[in-house]
Amino acid sequence: MNGSRCCCILCALVGLALVWLLMFAAPAVVRAQPPKGPVSFIKDVAPILSENCFACHDAKRKKGKLEMTSYETLRKGGTKDDPIMPGKARESILMDMLTATGPAQMPPKDVGDPLPKEQIAIIARWIDEGAKLDAGIDPKSDLRHELRIRFQPPPLLAAYKYPVNVNALVFTPDKKKLVVGGYHELTVWDAAAGKLEKRIATRAERAYGLIFLPDGKLAVAGGRPGQEGDVRIYNINAGKPTMLGGVPTIDGVNDKTVFLRELVQTDDAMLAIALSPDGKKLASAGTDRLLRVWDLPSGKLEHTIENHADWVFGLAFAPDGKHLATASRDKTAKVWDLSAKESMLTFPDHQNSVYAVAITADGKFGVSCGEDTQVRQWQATDDKKQIGKQIKVMGSHGKPVFRMVQHHDPKSPIVATCGADGTVKLWNPVAGTALKTLTGHSDWVYAVTISPDGQLVAGGAWNGEVRVWRVADGKEATAFNASPGYVAPAAKAAAKK
Ligand code: HEC
After folding, report:
1. Torsion of CA 136, 202, 488, 461, to 10 degrees
2. Burial of 129: CB neighbours in 10 Å, binned 0-12, 13-18, 19+
3. Quick one: fold of 169-485?
4. pLDDT digit string (tens) for 340-384?
5. For the chain, does the N or the C end have fewer beta carbons within 10 angstroms?
6. Residue extent(s) of CATH 2.130.10.10 domains in the chain
7. Ligand 1 binding residues, C-beta < 6 A
8. What is the pTM of this model?
9. Ligand 1 atom at minimum distance from 115 CA
10. If you measure from the C-alpha of residue 152 to the centroid of ligand 1, how many angstroms do you get, rounded to a whole number?
C-alpha cells in the first residue's frame, strides 16, 4: 500500500478542489505549450486559475475577500486593490504572490507547490499584454461555466500508463459483463474471462455511480472533481466502433446514438445514483449537497431537496420508492419522505463522514457505513419512538468503509460493503449479521456491485484491480486489472528478462 496516502475518503475518493486539484490537477485542460500569439485569458489563464485558485477564491470561500471566478471580481480585488496592473506584470500583486517564497505564496505553502514556471510566465505575459478579457465574454460571466463550455475531453490512450482508480462498476443486466469507470471513459469487460470488450469515451473524467435502467440504457453519475459534474444516459450497445489498441471503441461524447441525454450538469462531481425499485425514478446527489429525483423515462426533474450540510456520498431508495436514504459528509445518514420533501429521520451515530446507506426490503432497517469503519444497523420505520436509533453495530472493516450495495431478495437479503482494508464483506441487513469476507485485493476497494440475480459480487480497487466472487461459496471467479493496456512494472521487468 501507498504509505504517503492521506487516510480519508475526501482526498482519495473525491478529493474536491484542493487536495485533488493541487495534487493530481488534470493537465488536459491547461495547454502544455505557451501560446504562440497573444495570451488568451479564457484559453490560457483561466484554466490555471480554475485548477489552482478557485478552490479558495470562489464566491463561497473568498479567501482574502478575493473572488476569482469572474473577470470582474478578479479585477475588483479583495482586501487589497486590483491584483493586476495591466501592462505591468512586475508591479502586480498577483505576480508577487505567485512568485513569493514566504507566507504570501499562492497557492499557500501548506496546500501545494508554487505554480510551474511556464504557467507563471503565461500569466505574466497576459498581464504585460494588457490583461484583457477575450472578446465576446461578459466580464460578469462565471468563468467555471465559460471553461465548461469550452472543455473537450482528452482523446483516449490505447494503453494506460498508470492503473485507473476504480470508483464505480456494475454488472450488465445479463451479468455477463462488467462496466467499469475509467479515465474519461467506461470500459466493458467479459465478467468470466476478464477480457476488455469495449471502450466508451465520456465527457466525465470519472464515473462515481453506474446503474442500468429498465430499458437497458446506462445512467452514469460523475464528473471532473472540482470542475463539473453530470448525470448522463448512454446506450452502450449503439454507435460505430473504431478500433483503439485492438479494442472496439465508441464515442459517448459526441455520438448522439451513444450519449442519449444529460439530466443535469453541476459545478462539481456527482457522487451517487440510485434507481427506485419500480424503475420509474432515478435519484442522484453529490458535492452540491442537493438530492435530485427524476421521473423516468421522461427525464423530468421532480424533486430538488436541500438539507444535508455537506456532500452527499451515498443514496438508496426504500422498497416503497417513496422514501430515499442518503449518506453525507455532514456525519449523518437521513431518510427522506419524497412527497413531503422532508427528512423523516437522521441517524447521527457514525460521528464522522457517512459514505453509504441502504434500507432493507421490508423497509424496517437502515444500514450505513463510513469513515468510522463501522457498519451500523438502525430503525428506519415501525416504532415511532425508536426511529433513527441504532439497533446495533453489525461489524467493522477496521478501516473506512466506502460503499454499500444491496440485493433485495426477501429470502436471503444481502448487503455488500467495501473498504480501505482491501476487502468486500457480505452482510445480512435484516438479521444484522456478518456473512462473509471476500479477500484478494491488495489495495483500497472503492467500488462494489452485486449481479442482478444476486449470485456474483464484484469489487473494484484503487490499483485498478477488479475481482469477482461467487456469493454462494465466497470463491473468486475472475480477477483482472481494469486499466486498458496497462502493464504493471513487475510484469514489464519480467518480460524484459
Ligand atoms: C488553500 C487556499 C488558497 C488557495 C488554493 C489560493 N489562495 Fe490566494 N489566498 C488565500 C488566503 C487565505 C488569502 C488571504 C491571505 C491573507 O490575507 O493573509 C489569499 C489571498 C490572496 C490574494 C490577495 C487578495 C487580497 O486582496 O487580499 C491573492 C491575489 C491571491 N490569494 C491569489 C491567489 C492565486 C492566484 C491563487 C492560485 C494560483 C491562490 N490565491 C490560491 C488562500 C488560497
Report:
1. 110
2. middle
3. Methylamine Dehydrogenase; Chain H (2.130.10)
4. 888 899 999 999 999 999 999 989 999 999 999 999 999 997 667
5. C
6. 169-485
7. 18, 52-53, 55-57, 63-64, 66, 77-80, 83, 93-94, 97-98, 106-108, 111, 115
8. 0.85
9. 38
10. 28
